[in-house]
Design brief:
single chain, mainly alpha, 72% helix
């Protein structure tokens, strides 16, 4: 982060890079709940970048890690696409009901 600030990167780039570094070793099973949780924790934009950079990051590791990685990665990508296609919400802002609705309903 200090490097990015020293070279005067904008705040958006600073946020994206630091979040990618923070989450680059995150591994989760390709289940709907775990992918939604990861999308919520990382945020949609960082999650998309995570999916783009994870294969490159993993290719720098051993061959055994790559053999284990490929099926899980394909499952995560497939599950993320299914979540978006269904329109599942993964943040509080996306919920159809908010606190005001609950107060009005009593």
């Amino acid at each position: 982060e200090a490097f990015l600030r020293e070279y005067r990167f904008d705040n958006r780039t600073l946020h994206l890079v630091t979040e990618l570094i923070r989450h680059h070793d995150d591994r989760f099973p390709p289940t709907p709940a775990s992918v939604r949780r990861a999308m919520n924790i990382m945020g949609e934009e960082v999650f998309d970048l995570y999916l783009r950079f994870t294969p490159a990051d993993n290719s720098a590791k051993s061959c055994a890690a790559n053999d284990e990685f490929a099926p899980r990665y394909a499952g995560v990508v497939r599950e993320a696409a299914a979540i978006r296609a269904r329109g599942d919400c993964f943040t509080l802002k996306e919920l159809a009901v908010n606190g005001g609705d609950l107060i009005r309903a009593g």
